[in-house]
Amino acid sequence: MREKEIFTIMCAAKINLYLGVVGVREDGYHDIETLFQPVSLYDEISFCRIDKGIELSGNDETIQWGESNLCYRAAEELFKYVNYRGGIRIEVKKNIPVEAGLGGGSSNAGGVIKGLNKYLNFNLDQDELMGIALKIGSDVPFFVFGRSAIGRGRGELLEEIKGIDGCFVVLAVPKVKISTEKAFKKLSLLLTRSESEYKLRRLLNGLDGFPESEIKTYNSFETPMEVLYPELHSLLVLLKTGKDCIFSSLSGSGSACFAVFVKNASAARMLDRVLDEGYFGVIVKPVNRTFDIYK
Ligand code: C5P
Q1: Ligand 1 pocket mutation pick from 138, 152, 156, 225 by most atoms within 8 angstroms of CB
Q2: For residues 202 and 208, is the Cβ–Cβ distance under 8 A?
């Protein structure tokens, strides 16, 4: 294929500034309330038309690039929806750690849906794209929506919010991988919906006055995952005790954690400590969209 026919996109990771699990649903999923914040850590996905079929590959050998991969399923669902008879080659360059609660796989799936809708001129609207996204996973609609948002229901009922800005976020990932499904199974559902509403509102008020006001966050998975994984507990203690850290938490169901700083130098000091302890670490910034066309 000629290079000019290749279309490349960037898909961002997310952190959950808040995550409350408020009940089990009849369909077996859980109702959640969460605050999704995109951050500047990106995977890159390239598309190229082929005659037929879906060919998927990626630069991370620990990931299965077959038919069960979220990118493959996203392309398959989209093609079914529009009755597309042509084919596509998809190549993924991973930077976002996998099974870490940073939404890497969901971001890639959202990127495939949005990217192919543009590249192949399907002209589907946002609601149609988000409907396809929900078939792939609970977090995928957020990555199609693309902006900082409160997520309710399974995470697909989205309300845009301002998000955070003007800060540096240290992402730190321990070696342990946590499957979302298993993490949900380990939860004791102690948080009521009204308690969750209160905690979320308190956080949003705190973020309104950011960084001057006190900020208290919450994640339903944090305590149970800390109990299960001592390495995760040590990391959360390290982040919480960091000088100048405004707030810190687990992201999603883990195992990634994050700590928010106003000064770059303070974030850099924390990053050194994270790396010294042998964790994966990187400094990112909050961004206001999850998807960009690569120029
Ligand atoms: O939707 P997704 O496939 O990403 O979810 C992975 C697993 O996490 C589900 O199979 C389900 O067990 C659990 N989950 C849940 N409630 C949610 C999201 C995910 O129970 N809101």
Answers
A1: 138
A2: no
Could you give the residue ranges of the DSSP H alpha helices within the chain?
Answer: 70-82, 104-119, 126-136, 140-145, 180-186, 193-208, 222-228, 230-240, 264-276
Place of tokens 């409350």: 20
Angle, to 10 degrees, between the axis of helix 70-82 and the axis of helix 104-119?
Answer: 30
Q: Which of 14, 16, 19, 30 to mutate to test the pocket of ligand 1 (most atoms within 8 A of CB)?
A: 30
Is 139 catalytic? The answer is yes
**Beta strand 7-24 with 291-293: parallel, antiparallel or unpaired?**
antiparallel
Q: Token match 């990187």: residue?
A: 282
- Write down the domain spans for the chain: 3-161, 168-284
Task: Answer yes or no: 285 catalytic.
Answer: no
Domain 3-161 fold is Ribosomal Protein S5; domain 2 (3.30.230)
Name, in order, each residue with C-beta under 8 angstroms of 109's C-beta and a sequence gap of 6 or more.
Answer: 70, 71, 73, 74, 133, 136, 137, 140, 143
pLDDT digit string (tens) for 255-266?
A: 999 999 999 999
Task: Please state whether the predicted TM-score (pTM) of the whole model is above 0.70.
Answer: yes
Give pLDDT tens digits for 175-210. 999 999 999 998 988 899 999 999 999 999 999 888
Burial class of residue 231 in the structure, from the number of CB atoms within 10 Å of its CB (0-12 exposed, 13-18 middle, 19+ buried): middle
SS3 percent helix, strand, coil of the chain, rounded to 5, is 35, 30, 35
C-alpha distances out from residue 191 to 23, 39, 42, 215, Å: 8, 27, 33, 19
Q: Is 184 in the pocket of ligand 1 (CB under 6 A)?
A: yes
Q: How far apart are CA 10 and CA 15, in angstroms?
A: 17
CATH 3.30.70.890 is the classification of domain 168-284? yes
